[in-house]
Amino acid sequence: VCLSHSLFLFFPFFLRFIMRVIIPPLLRVWVVVVFGFHWIPVKGEQASVEEAPICLISPHSNVMDSWMLSIYAWGSVMSRRENESMPIVGSCLKSCEPIWVDRDMTKGIGTVQEMINRIKEPGFWARIVLFPEGTVHNTDSIIGFKTGAFRPGYPIQPMVWRFNRDPGLGIWSHYGHSIPTTLFLTMCQLHNTCEIEYLPVYVPSEEEKQDAQLYASNVQNLVAKALGKPMTDYGLEDLRLVQKSVDEGMPRDCALVEYNLMNRLFKLRLPDLKVILDRFIEMNTSKSGKLSEGEFLSHLQWPVEEHARLLYKEYNTCSDSAGIRFREYVVGTADLALKVPDVDSIVFTAYEELSSARGSLTARSMLNYIQHAHRNVSVLQAEAFLNRVSQSQDLTPEGFSAYVDANPDVGVLLYWLLNGTGGF
User: CA–CA distance from 92 to each of 3, 114, 278 (Å)?
Assistant: First the structure.
């Protein structure tokens, strides 16, 4: 490992010669003899680096993809930063002139700039090669493409491959076989087939150059049609949410929301969805993945119960008696935020109205205000709500505002209370 790293530092041109000229033929022998890929037909032609400086390969389903990439689509690979420290694999990647991707970066601006810098020097750098999904999946459908490769706005050549194999064999997904098991199952097949196809170069329109999400979606649709598979809005971010829900003891499929769709419709990013998921998990004490009306009311402790029930119905768009799913809760939260835009002003007004003459928020002062319109509210209900607030915040204007920020459902209920309405 140390030797290969030193070679990369001091003999880059020598390493390029090895990786580009010597390694591909050896890998061909490897995949033929060990894994039984005796014949790999290739359709179409690979464009020059000047025509298409970026090559996208889809679908990404197993570790074999990396070997096929080295044979048929050599270039500067994009790889997650964590792979750099892997024994052997990390050193091999370093010799491929990689672009390291930090998945924790919100927008990946540094990665995009590095891509642009390399594209502007086609004689020195190899073409950029990547898997646009950003993760492996079972290839039943084409999941959402991440937008990083599309932000520079350069032409792209999609490359697709079709592994003709039994369902489940050779697929390395996050909740499937391990890498050794995947490779072993592939070797157990006497003959495996793979077909590779270079699709025509996709030149973006001016609109696509300005909208990376549109560009990515159109190329995803092109790839899906070429493979004869449906396309979905699920992506790597959905996997992150699923893993978080599993760690909290929730059902595995509870947190699937079609991230790309949520981002497109409501501009919600992964950190936003994680906050909403934390709130959903806190309310869903049964860990069933469906939020019941009782759990919803118990968490809010809102004095005007009829309003809380109406809010629950706003979320439960499917009228499911078992409860609200996380996806419904996300859509409901985003939708209600649009209907009640000026929450800060509402919170300030509400605190003034609900407080006593001395400016302190008490159960009695709340009750005096609420009972003008809702006679059946008791002081115990007001106390229960204030106890809920005081568990995390002080009963000051700032503390009350912070509580509503963390629990936007309360902002909607305050809006209804101040306007003397129930619902929209």
Answer: 11, 20, 39
